[in-house]
Each structure stands twice: as structure tokens, then as C-alpha cells.
Amino acid sequence: MAILCVANWSEGRNEVTLGDLRWALHGGNCNVHFDGSDFDHNRIVTAFSGDAEDVRKTLLALVNVAFDAIDMRKHEGVHPRIGALDVCPFIVLNESEDLDYVLDWAARIAEAIALKYKLPIFLYEKSETGKHARDLPSLRKGQYEGLIGRTLDPDFGTTNVNPWLGATVMGVRDWLLAVNVNLSDSDPVRAKDIAKRMRELRESDSRFTGVRALGLPLPSKGLSQVSMNMTRPDETRFDEIFDWIAGEGVEIAGTELIGVIRERDLPFSTRLDPKQEQILQA
Predict the structure, then answer these.
(1) Residues known to be catalytic
(2) pLDDT averaged over the chain?
């Protein structure tokens, strides 16, 4: 059974920790597709795939490194986050696989991590059980700081936020495309406005179906960013979105693919420049 894991960690600045995470990632038996970090986001995204047991072992190796090093009480970054392991999606690469088996496998991993580290873990998307919202933006509303002092209702772990590690969102989800369009303007006002308009157009313009967008500053680069998750990539086209943004009268400094992309999405994503290891047949 081939499973893709795209674990997002709240660390993008400490080079020692980043090096240790990359060592753990590349030291396992999984195929590594991405390990990109960003200073302004203060975040590293790791994308790796393989047999279910190898994915589990690699994830736990990363957890051991990250949870020893990350202290959410000191974490700052422009990207929304609630925990050291902020979000950890699993994607089944072969659609013919037994979904019930994968859901149980993911839940057992979440339970083990939650119990060992006294960490609240919320199951989301296909793994969600009816206790709370199933989508990431809702579960991450208020961020880490908004969890402090609240009584939580996670699927596993403590009902109070872990002061050092925060909380985690984990589960099986469908494929999505995570992309950034960087703007030359250091002031994020235009990026925020563009992202807001995209969210408003989701219901009326098919180009933006299922697109989640945020406008963010990138002060270390002197840029701003429209950060997007295209949650229905079979219905949307990145090139169309890129052209729409370009038509808003902004100067585009570049694009970024975060994580992986399916080979069948490439003809509609020519504005991206993925590395070969980021391209999957799924």
C-alpha cells in the first residue's frame, strides 16, 4: 500500500533543527519528494511516500526530532499554525486501496503520538468522526494562542493544549495542490485583497472552486505572497489562477510549488517549475 505523507512542522529558522529533520527524513526507507523550509513562514514541509509501515516509521522519527526542539511558546511566523506538528495529512496513492484500512492505520498513529506526548490531536477530512469541524481552516482558527486556556475536544490526547507542542491536525484527505504566487510588493495589502477576492469568488467563478487563499508578508525577502491550497485540482487550473492574479495589475516575482504535484496536473500548471521528485503518478 503506497501512502503519501505531507507533514508540516513549525520550524523554518533554526538550521540545526532543520538539518536534524532532514537527516531523519532522508534516513528512512521512504521516497522523499520535498523538504522545503521558509524563514518568514517559520515552517518546513516534508513530503514522503512509501509502504504504510515505512511511512509510519519515518513520521515517528521526524516527531522525535521536532518535539525535542520546537517550543510553540516562542514560535512566530506569518503562516497560521496550532502546533509543532501543525498538520499531517495522509494521501492514498492508489485509489483502489481499502480506505477503511487506511483510516484505521492513520487513527492508530494519531492515538500513539497523542498518548506519548500528551498532545491533543484532531482527526480531519476523511478521518473526521463527527466530534468537531472536518476542515483545516476551522480547526486552526485562532491559531496556537487561541487554544490556550480552552477546554478542547480532540479525538485523541489531552483536552488542554500542550504548552510546548500545541495541538495537531491529522488524517486522511484527498489530493490538493499547494502553491504560492509571490508579488514584488513588500506591502501585503494587495496580496491580502487578492486572496480575499478569490475566497469570495469560490461560489460564483469555477476557476476558484475549492481554492483556499491567504495574503501574507515575506519581510525577509521584501515580497508579499498569495498562498493557496487548491483542494479540488481536478476542477481547477493553476495557470488560469495565475493569469487572473497577473491581470490584477501586480508584479509577480515568482511561483512556488509546496510539496508534490500529480503528473496529470502538469499540462495545466506550466507556470510552476517542479523538480522531478515532486511529480507523482497518482
Answers:
(1) 79
(2) 97
